[in-house]
Write a structure and sequence with these properties.
The protein contains 2 helices and 2 strands; from the N terminus they run E-E-H-H. It is mainly alpha-helical and 176 residues long.
Length: 176
């Protein structure tokens, strides 16, 4: 059955299938266009709202940056005053005379470094003694364990010998 042969009857009016297909095709195309336009405009509205929000954020950031610039300028002026005070304080404390004291401290530091080297040598010696002591303790522990095992064996052997003598006594004197 072909589309030309199909007929639709609506309210006494008869429509051919081809016309119905063409009308449905146009109607769906128009509906798709309307939907696409609607979607496009809703996206434009969303973008417009995003641009407005970005503008508000930019204004807020600009105000904050202005506040920051002002506070940095004030801080910089405060630092300049502090540096001037420090320079004056250095001049007042006669920093130049500190050179002799620094030389004396350097000499003391060298003596401390020599003493530290000696202490490091002593530390190494103590570590070696501790190591050999630990090895000796392990050897003694092993010897003690070995002696315990030997003692246990001797006790078993003595018990076996006693049992053998008891057995020999009972064989020699069965009635006794």
């Amino acid at each position: 059955m072909a589309l030309d042969d199909l007929e639709l009857n609506i309210g006494g009016q008869s429509f051919k299938g081809v016309y119905v297909a063409v009308v449905v095709s146009f109607a769906s195309t128009i509906a798709g266009g309307i939907w696409t336009a609607s979607e496009f405009f809703s996206r434009l509205e969303a973008q417009e709202a995003a641009v407005e929000a970005a503008g508000v954020t930019a204004s807020t950031l600009q105000a904050r940056f202005e506040d920051l610039r002002e506070s940095q300028t004030e801080a910089l002026q405060g630092y300049q005053v502090t540096i001037a005070n420090m320079q004056q304080s250095l001049e007042d404390n006669d920093v130049a005379s500190l050179q002799g004291k620094l030389a004396e401290l350097g000499t003391n530091l060298e003596a401390i470094m020599e003493a530290q080297k000696e202490l490091l040598d002593l530390r190494d010696r103590v570590a070696a003694v501790e190591k050999s002591n630990a090895e000796a303790v392990l050897r003694v522990d092993n010897r003690l364990e070995s002696l315990k095992d030997t003692n246990e064996r001797l006790k078993r052997i003595q018990k076996e010998i006693d049992d053998i003598w008891l057995g020999l006594d009972s064989i020699a004197n069965p009635l006794g």
